[in-house]
Specification:
The chain has 283 residues and is an alpha+beta fold. The protein is built from 11 helices and 7 strands. It has a 5-stranded mixed β-sheet with strand order 1-3-2-7-6, with no helix packed on it. A two-stranded antiparallel sheet has the order 4-5.
Amino acid sequence: EIDVPALAVRLRAFAARATARVSEIGRHAVQLDSEMPTDDIEFPPGSVVDLSGGSRGERRLVEISMNNGQRIIARASTGIVLRNDSAATTSFIERPASQIRKGEEVCVIGPGFVERARTLVNVRATAAAEIREYHLQVASRFSAIAGDSVNERLRVVVSLMREPRVSIETARYWVDLNDELDKPLHDVVPHAPHDRETFMRFTGALGIGPKLAESFWLWAVVAQRSHRLRSGNIFHDAFRGILTDPHAALASNRNRSDDIRALRAMAEEHVATVAETRSLEVT
């Protein structure tokens, strides 16, 4: 008990207010699911965007550090998206990671970019539509191959794929598309090779160009199979193509022109200035 009456009164008053405040805090229910953050709150971007793909086949990597704390780790030959300030209007260009320099402005296609892009482009719907288009291309081109039977045409395709040799039975699954073409779009699944190298050889044997084949691989195969939708490296190449070659993107996706324009406008928000670059050696 404090003997000084005035001090005792003040301390008791302070204790009463503190007790009341603690009680209020303890009873407060924060409903994160129902209380959405205001628009002016920015979620922190992923600090590291790994585009190295595990660095298989290439020992030399490049680390690009941004002035906002983000870092990109990529193969020396990986195309990086830059804002082209020399153009009259906002545009983006592509340059190998090894040629990126301090002070340049890079569009960081990382988790934050992909998360925003998912609100503009329905990834699952886009993937399903690309699978359908891929199947139509395969069916059309396979039927045009010389041969009196499916087996004869399969032998031609397998021969054009060269080594390592693929069995006819394996290739048969890739062209057995009648059921898939009749399915509702949301039920369709890709009949395609599981690895990129075989996929590119197969599409090449059918006469599908490398750029279109790469788009099919990213959107029709990888996007459908992968659950890592937040990882920048999965869709980096697809989004890079939309940003740096908008005319080609619009030409092949006329029904998604609004989405593509919105995506390009959104990319401006993910531009950061390069603080430094350095080479990394994979051991």
